[in-house]
Design brief:
With 483 residues, this protein is an alpha+beta fold. It has a domain of 243 residues: Amidase signature (AS) enzymes. The protein is built from 14 helices and 17 strands. The strands form 4 sheets. Strands 1-3-2-8-10-9-16-17-13-11-12 form an 11-stranded mixed β-sheet, with helices on both faces. The protein has a two-stranded antiparallel sheet with strand order 4-5. The chain has a two-stranded antiparallel sheet with strand order 6-7. 52% of the residues are buried.
Length: 483
């Protein structure tokens, strides 16, 4: 039997029943990577010798009657996580030889749960792209069409899962970096509530792995089913044992509902700042039809929805204020000069990007205060709804574009070009207020490419969108291997 596309749940059951060993699963995964990854380039740092050793230990532990949530299951890890003895570069050439001496907290949790780490997956430079390519490890291709991107920045992990290279992966998300690759590659991913899962050791080299509370950015699970997402999320959640974990642990509340017909869902397919392509619009409507067919209450409009334009502008400011914080002084001063020339009437996304890059601390505090108003608006909305279904990006996967200046790139939406980074408005809808969001497959484009949507849920109620994702999987289908 071939195990490569079995779910983590199925693999765990087979391991417990003695139908397969971890060594056999690991050898099969390694053989598939060695055979198929030359065309995909998802696994940028293999760790096969240690994986085989970990698999042997897992089999020995199971023979002694031990069991853990992921015992013996092959997984991958995004390159940006520190793993002792493997390079962590974030795709940045000056850091090509940086070698951490300790595992990131999430890698430690994976290993403590019994997972077998096959290796690390590819990323864009500095994790700052919607594609995954860099000078150290090259370009990761989409398993459905090698001329297209697999997404970013967790593009290597998404491509690995879609190709059968391990059952699970862990990634991170600041600008859709879990959700966009899942959408492009036809898999599942979950962006947890901000602060729910510790991030220590997921840090740009050569910075020390300190227990920092990040703004906007989270770490989260990727899988080929919604139930596997929950399995992995349960391993990842919890505060850093060096800080908040000294005082408390986390218990996620149960999903609000168990039956599809009990859910109240707001469906969004239009954004005031960028159109939604026809393929993605069809994906949203496919999910809406499944919800309605299952008896769920679906609404298209509500006065409770926070203003989408202001939300996008706030997200743009908060996002790019962080990305430019470590720019060289001369580059930063050039940005300040350009921003000063902007007209006060210019409220475009490009202007918000530039203003965000040079945001003063005073202005950041003001933006953060407006974010809290949006969070309060979402709390009011989720008193009436259980989830929001909407796009992740306006289009399916697009062709590789390695223009060194991302501001010169364009995204084609049904034949019309738009600025490349404008597509982030949908990812920012959940990221700016820190809400959980689950990316699910929602069918195929006319060209046969995967199309996904996101299910946004109430803060710290991550099980609610995950349960909805599981119920929808039974209605509309889930992951399918690339043809």
């Amino acid at each position: 039997m071939e195990w490569s596309f079995q779910t983590a749940e199925e693999l765990a059951a087979a391991l417990r029943a003695g139908e397969v060993t971890s060594v056999e699963l690991t050898d099969e995964a390694i053989a598939r990577i060695e055979r198929d990854d030359k065309a995909i380039n998802a696994i940028c740092v293999p760790d096969f010798d240690r994986a085989r050793a970990a698999a042997r230990r897992a089999d020995q532990e199971r023979a002694r009657g031990e069991d853990r949530p992921l015992l013996g299951i092959p997984v991958t890890v995004k390159e940006s996580y520190n793993i002792a003895g493997l390079p962590t570069t974030w795709g940045m050439s000056p850091q090509a030889n940086f070698m951490p001496t300790e595992d990131a907290v999430q890698v430690s949790r994976l290993k403590a749960a019994g997972a077998v780490v096959l290796g690390k997956t590819n990323v864009p430079v500095g994790l700052q792209d919607i594609q995954s390519f860099n000078e150290i490890y090259g370009t990761t291709n989409n398993p459905w069409d090698h001329g297209l991107t697999s997404g970013g920045s967790s593009g290597g992990s998404a491509a690995a899962l879609a190709s059968g290279f391990g059952a699970l992966s862990i990634g991170s998300d600041l600008a859709g970096s879990l959700r966009t690759p899942a959408h492009f590659c036809g898999i599942y991913a979950h962006k947890p509530t901000l602060g729910l899962a510790a991030t220590r050791g997921m840090v740009a080299p050569p910075a020390p792995p300190l227990p920092v509370d990040l703004d906007l950015a989270v770490v989260g699970p990727m899988a080929r089913t919604a139930r596997d997402l929950m399995l992995l999320l349960d391993v990842m959640v919890g505060p850093d044992p060096m800080t908040h974990g000294v005082a408390y642990d986390v218990t996620l509340p149960p999903a609000r509902h168990e039956r599809l017909g009990d859910f109240r869902v707001l469906a969004l397919e239009e954004h005031p700042l960028i159109p939604t392509g026809s393929a993605v619009r069809a994906g949203v409507n496919r999910v809406v039809d499944a919800l309605a067919d299952g008896g769920a209450r679906v609404e298209r409009h509500t006065p409770l929805l926070p203003d989408l334009t202001e939300a996008a502008m706030l997200y743009r400011q908060l996002l790019f204020s962080g990305s430019a914080a470590r720019f060289p002084v001369d580059s930063y001063e050039q940005l300040r000069t350009r921003a000063a020339r902007l007209s006060a009437d210019d409220q475009s996304l490009d202007a918000a990007l530039l203003r965000g890059m040079v945001l003063s601390h005073r202005d950041w505090i003001e933006a953060n205060s407006r974010r809290e108003l949006h969070r309060h608006g979402w709390r009011q909305l989720f008193a009436e709804f259980d989830a929001v279904v909407c796009p992740i990006t306006p289009t399916p996967a697009f062709p590789h574009d390695h223009n060194p200046d991302p501001l010169e790139r364009r995204i084609d939406i049904d034949g019309v070009e738009y600025p490349y980074f404008d597509q982030l408005v949908w990812a920012g809808l959940a990221t700016m207020p820190g809400l959980p969001a689950t990316a699910i497959p929602a069918g195929r484009s006319p060209e046969g490419l995967p199309v996904g949507v996101q299910l946004i849920g109430p803060m710290f109620e991550d099980r609610t969108p995950l349960r909805l994702a599981e119920l929808l999987e039974h209605k509309i289908g889930g992951f399918q291997p690339p043809r």
